[in-house]
Amino acid sequence: AGAFNVNITGQLDVVSGITNNSTNAQAFSGPVVLRFSGSPTINAASGNLSFSSLGYNSTNDTVTFTGAHAITIGNGVNMGTGANGKQFVKTGTGTLFFNGSAGGTVDPATTGLNINQGTVVANNNNALNFTTNVRLGNTSGSASASLILGSGISSNRSVLVRSGNSGTMTLGSSSDSTTTLSGLVTAQKNITIAQQ
Fold it and tell me: What is the mean pLDDT of residues 190-194?
């Protein structure tokens, strides 16, 4: 399939997930609200995927972002009150970009971001504000995982660097500018500090 851009002005119900099996980048634009049932997967398998924005309303689902390519959320994550208990899981070797400011009415203490593999990049000071619980690394296996702050970004999120895996855990910046991670970092294993 060739590249496409889907402009959505309402709500898109996703049951099992979205996969890009094309080498062409695929984009979803407009005020996208994804309503999940079950535990869907967003998979940039063969090419990049991008969403202008994402809103989540369903409760206690695990949403997995995976694949070898980039997934970009442009205008931030908006969590509704029904999203309490939501868990985002990053797997696969690709990169997940949060480029906008996260918002919504959810209690961020009830949600989580688990970076089990690959890289998550925060390109906005409030990009990760949908959660207070960032967990870096899986509890088993050999996958490496990274949390990267974009140029000049500051974040007050707490990070738990989990043990049980043999991969490299990286905290760092995407440039040589000053970035600040002011939340508590709890390290259960060694951390690499690097520019990526």
Answer: 96
